[in-house]
Amino acid sequence: MTTTDTVTGALLATTGLTKRYGPLTAVDHVDLSLGRGIVGLLGPNGAGKTTLLRILATVLSPDAGDVRLLGLDPTEPKERLEIRRRIGFLPQSPRLYGGFTPLEMVDYVAILKEHTDKTWRRNEARAALEALGLGDRMHQRIRTLSGGMQQRVALAAALIGTPQLLVLDEPATGLDPEQRIALRSVLAGCADEGTVLLSTHNTAEVSALCQHVLVMDQGRICWSGAPEDLAAAAQGQVWESPHDEPTAVRSWLTGPGNRRHLGTPPEGARVVTSTLDDGYLLVTRLAR
Ligand SMILES: Nc1ncnc2c1ncn2[C@@H]1O[C@H](COP(=O)(O)OP(=O)(O)OP(=O)(O)O)[C@@H](O)[C@H]1O
């Protein structure tokens, strides 16, 4: 059964969430209310995504604001324990034990979550590793696996126990295209029953996978909505030409002899259909 916040109906809710590092406000009054489905968190380097996700994974405490996860309060020790049992977290730089096998590593995470049934644990660990294409690597020492394989071991550890809330910091990092596609199916399955919140720099990943997108910039959520609406936000403001354009706020090369521009198109410009990248660049520019 899915537990939701009794007031908002959300699996994840924050109000006024704030985290400071000395004079820097990394997360600045963030209000969120997320239900079932896959939510993509986009934002430039240093926007505060990792800091926000670490707070939501109960690894870091905020300086101000409220958090409710699965309807529970992480500041209450008993409720925090219950949350940790029921969420999955993939940190940005996962720490794995190189001397363990993938099966031992995922099993160990299940033990930390106090799953006491050994047969259940092993079955769950095997299923998670197989879903991530590691069925033939379960008994190999982690230190002898490739970077992408190690990332998939960490993902399998996050998936153990079918968490109702999955918080994933750049889950597709290091995965080859085939494994990225496989990961999409795994995450889509997780979202049937719960919330998957993932940070990424890959807008194609967001288009393919997410029902909702949040854009973070300078600690704030500067845009929230459906991916197609973010793409549409730049409609009429994107054009292509072979040269630089004075009215463009941003221009970039899209192929030999072709540049794409964002801004106010000049008379007669070849205006093109806007994409998620265009919308993202536009809202982060406006937020500055
Ligand atoms: N432990 C820390 N001490 C001081 N400053 C920190 C610490 N962790 C993060 N920061 C700062 O907080 C801001 C937000 O960092 P954060 O890692 O959350 O951003 P991000 O959006 O995840 O970036 P990226 O896309 O590069 O991973 C940055 O300016 C960063 O330098």
Q: What does this 3D model show about the protein?
A:
The protein is of the alpha/beta class. It has 2 domains: 216 residues, P-loop containing nucleotide triphosphate hydrolases (Rossmann fold, 3-Layer(aba) Sandwich), CATH 3.40.50; 57 residues, no CATH class. It is built from 9 helices and 13 strands. It has a 6-stranded mixed beta sheet with strand order 5-6-7-3-8-9, sandwiched between helices. Strands 11-12-10-13 form a 4-stranded antiparallel beta sheet, covered by helices on one side. The chain has a 3-stranded antiparallel beta sheet with strand order 2-1-4, with helices on one face. β8 and β9 form a beta hairpin. The longest helix has 14 residues. The mean pLDDT is 93. The structure holds adenosine-5'-triphosphate. The site of adenosine-5'-triphosphate (ATP) has 11 residues, from β2 and α1. InterPro entries: AAA+_ATPase, ABC_transporter-like_ATP-bd, ABC_transporter-like_CS, P-loop_NTPase.
How are the elements arranged and paired?
Blueprint lengths: L11 E10 L2 E11 L2 E6 L6 H8 L7 E6 L7 H10 E4 L11 H11 L5 H14 L15 H13 L5 E5 L7 H14 L4 E5 L3 H7 L2 E6 L2 E6 L1 H6 L5 E4 L6 E8 L2 E6 L6 E2 L4 H12 L1
Parallel strand pairs: 3-7, 3-8, 5-6, 6-7
Antiparallel strand pairs: 1-2, 1-4, 8-9, 10-12, 10-13, 11-12
The chain binds adenosine-5'-triphosphate.
